[in-house]
């Protein structure tokens, strides 16, 4: 999908480089040997080099694939201008980081919370089995099924509210701003800690409890910013929700699962996840 590579030692290596890049994404920016940040930058350069190599190879033989890299190489704006090689490579790395780890993490959290909330899982399963049975047992869902998957949508929102890969967004004050008795001078970088908004008991009753039904009532405008907002709102927010919905459909109908260490401690940086990586056992429900 991204670069049409068959699994190989190189793709495994790429996976490891991405892992180290993610680990250093929010590390303290100390750029000298031995630090997580330094290692992440090194891996980023290696990823750039692999993608650059593939891009040059494709240009030489005018090779086009049905994948992201070819899509980026062919994209033209209204004036017929294409992306530079550097922009293609940059977008490749950024889209893997923004579009892959983000939804993978959300799917992990959804299964984690559902494993701990049997009542919620039962409701989710009931809804998804009903959708499937109404289509003669088909496991495929289409866009037309989404309006009937109301509980599933609530599970998706609640999962993303509880924890996601973007606990904060970055902004720069474009004028002096008075806030809470402080002045943020124009030009200052600002870290907006949206996770504290999503776990504020003023807006979300019992905020650390996984409760999909809280979404029966609309939230107060401005208090749910998991995908950021304004010009820089997450470009993949609809896609992300759709991917999680599809995974929940298949998982709830086809599997049951159990956390191996339900009390594992949770690490919140660089990305929230249980210390054991949310180890689970899965069992197939149907042949
Ligand atoms: C649960 C999943 C996801 C979460 C929580 C998430 C969250 C975010 C957040 C908070 C931002 C910054 C927005 C801002 O500054 O206002 C962002 C930006 C972005 N996201 Fe996502 N995202 C997710 C999935 C995805 C997916 C699946 C894709 C693409 C396939 C994607 C692509 C992007 C891109 C390209 C940007 C940069 C937008 C820009 O600066 O113009 N994201 N995301």
Automatic annotation (TrEMBL):
Record pathway: Hormone biosynthesis; Plant hormone biosynthesis
Q: Which Pfam families match?
A: p450
InterPro entries (UniProt xref): Cyt_P450, Cyt_P450_CS, Cyt_P450_E_grp-I, Cyt_P450_sf
- Which residues are heme-binding? 234
Q: Which GO terms describe its molecular function?
A: heme binding; iron ion binding; monooxygenase activity; oxidoreductase activity, acting on paired donors, with incorporation or reduction of molecular oxygen
Q: Which UniProt keywords apply?
A: Heme, Iron, Membrane, Metal-binding, Monooxygenase, Oxidoreductase, Transmembrane, Transmembrane helix
Assigned protein family: Belongs to the cytochrome P450 family.
* PANTHER family in alphabetical order: CYTOCHROME P450 26 (PTHR24286), CYTOCHROME P450 FAMILY PROTEIN, EXPRESSED (PTHR24286:SF12)
Please report the name of this protein according to its UniProt entry: Ent-kaurenoic acid oxidase 1
Q: Which organism is it from?
A: Aegilops tauschii subsp. strangulata (Goatgrass)
